[in-house]
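Reopening closed ticket. The problem is back. First fold of the pair:
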Amino acid sequence: MPKVLNFKQELTACFGQPVSENPTQAMVEAAYRHHGLDWRYLTIEVAPDDLAAAVAGARSMGFRGFNCTIPHKIAVIEHLDGLGESAALMGAVNCAVRQDDGQWIGENTDGKGFVDVARGDLDLGKLDSEEDKRAQEEVAKDKEGLVERLKGALGDSVADVRVSHRLTDSPAILAIGEQDLGLQMRQILEASGQKVPESKPIFEFNPSHPLIEKLDNEQSEDRFAELSHILFDQAALAAGDSLKDPAAYVRRLNKLLVELSV
């Protein structure tokens, strides 16, 4: 029986700006050929103002799906029918897929299989023994006073203050909330002109670090606040972030160095 001719190719695409140096088309179409799929992958430059029309066009032309690259990974969400778990977790979409029922669902394969260690909700408890967990609970209870003092000193700079059980060498880190974008993603979006939602970090401190022990024993609330902000800024720098007020950090650090030299 002769093979039925079918000249209709299934369409997929990449939406972004700029895209002229994006090599994805060559790789994806090679994969299509390898698997015997008569599909095409189009590299399409889409300006931010044209994104809604581009998604509508993909719907009306029966695309099977499209990849989203900068600057559309967040903006595309409002034009889709829903998000898969990966995209919901990361708050961004790099792949939109047409489902059998016609709905378009956003997914994210950028970080699939990995959990950002900077996230404040990262749970390593499954690796700990019951004895370890009890010890951690005791430490957290013992440091409740320090947590409250830090919250008062750092104020609106943080979303929360917590005792960390995952730090070894560092006195503190700035963690991100479950629904917040990671620092690298924020920097990429800001560099591309995307509006990034505001968020505040979670200040997690290492209760066994010598600097934290000295901070806990500090009697002067003014000096406690100064030292707390120094640790906060150092944690931001260690994470690769920029300081909102570099001059204040230098002033506090210089003041501390003068005090130590006396």
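Second fold of the pair, where the issue appears:
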Amino acid sequence: MPWPTFDVRGVEVLLIKMKVKHSIVINRSTEEIFAYMSELENLVDWSSVVIAARKISPGAMHVGATVRSTIRFLGRWSDITFEIVECEPSRDLTIKSISGVSPCLFYYQFEPVEDGKTNVSQDAVIHLTGEMLGLAEPVITNAIRRQLEHDLLTLKDNFAKRQAAGSLVVVSTRRPTTSCSWSSSCKRQA
């Protein structure tokens, strides 16, 4: 079956719409996990494809706040700007791309479970365009599914390392970055 196409200014563009759902239980409160994940600059610490993230809108993180990120996926570099489109503290967070090669939407839901743990659910809708389709569709979609699942595992591991270290800043095994602690003061991590 051929890939669906749509017309953009007289040019046919290939399009694959994929939906991904994952969830993981993390041994931290919904408030802590939400506070960390809603600071989108922290994506560099737990998303394997995000190389850099910088807030470009003024003020605190809120609905309408934007972050420009540089990603590397399957050997390709791209800039994507994300906007927070829904944000209910300690309950849910929705971000969407507003620029970049592949329109996407990520919805995170935070549900308290037993013993102060949190179930973090991720629903993603990603539209892969012709620019991303240099490989066969199953190769790309499987790589995205694995990457998103791996990212949630990294998030869980970072919280476990933080708990073991007893620190306010999530411990990262990645390169040095600046990320915010829960008290909204920023600290340099090694």
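Update: turned out to be a display glitch only; the data is intact. The beta strands are 5-8, 11-26, 50-55, 66-73, 76-88, 92-99, 104-112, 118-129, 178-180, 186-188. The radius of gyration is 17 Å. Please close again.
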